Amino acid sequence: MSLRRNRTTPRRSRQGLKRGESEEPYRDWIKHSSIDRRTRVVLALDLDGKAPSDLLEFGEALLDHTDEHVCGVRFGRQTVLNLGLSFTRRLTRRVHAGDLPCIIDDKLSDIGSTNEAITTAYYRLGFDAIIVNPSSGWKGGLEPVYRLSRKGGQGVIVLAYMSHPGAKETFGQRVFNGASRKPTYQYEKYARKAVDWDSDGIVVGATRPNIIRKLKPIVKGKVPVYSPGIGTQGGDIASARKAGSDYFIIGRSITRAQEPANISAKFARASFS
Q1: How do residues 81-115 score in pLDDT, each as one tens digit?
Q2: Which of these, 46, 68, 101, lies nearest to 265 by C-alpha position?
Q3: Pick from 194, 89, 182: which is nearest to 138 by CA?
Q4: Which is nearest to 40 in space by CA: 263, 273, 271, 221?
Q5: Burial of 166 (0-12, 13-18, 19+ CB in 10 A)
Q6: Nearest-CA neighbor of 64 among 127, 132, 118, 11?
Q7: Which regions of the chain are under pLDDT 70?
Q8: Rounded to 5 degrees, what angle do the CA atoms 85, 20, 35 make?
Q9: Which class is 26-272 in CATH?
Q10: Which residues are part of the catalytic machinery?
């Protein structure tokens, strides 16, 4: 697909507010963006296979064609690595120019000092939320990520169940539940951790509507559900939405489409109608 920049696309003002100061926190921003645009679609940018300058141009053109139909933009980690820091910052600025929040999908899970350094670097690049893997736990693990995010108004989204088949080997394993010694599923423990930590979302693949349905009572009214895997991986908005998903992370079905504006508008209508 070859895209040209659409420089006539209107940009909406954020009323003079600056990120990290007095504006609404991430969770409110994406919620209001969703309501204003009548869409629950989060565009997934996984850019590779070209020179950094070409990737930047493609990403900017893609946003020109789709940003009125999405409520946020999620960057894959490979996008940052392939663009480099300077071009990543330019692309997050372009996302913000369209009044949209940026999510970095790092699936971060390390010791606290490393998590803190990585999170700080991402937020300096302009990201407004980060996806983490809860396997490193709270104390000495993810606590600094939450502390930094609360201070700056960013969001933390917890990975609960991935969209690929192999996820059942780890996220779907049976584990003992603390002192009670009663067996439960790993993804249920992760969802409860997300609630306990006052997270801004959990990720559950749209390819697993039965698991979304099981987790919704745990997080309902507290933590929204983000579901990737729509389209190319076999998930669909209708099933995930019926099961309880709040936002739909869609990448290749839009980014590889011949007419991304039309397909993103179609997904937007399906997500919000």
Answers
A1: 999 999 999 999 999 999 999 999 999 999 999 99
A2: 68
A3: 194
A4: 271
A5: exposed
A6: 11
A7: 1-22, 180
A8: 100
A9: alpha beta
A10: 107
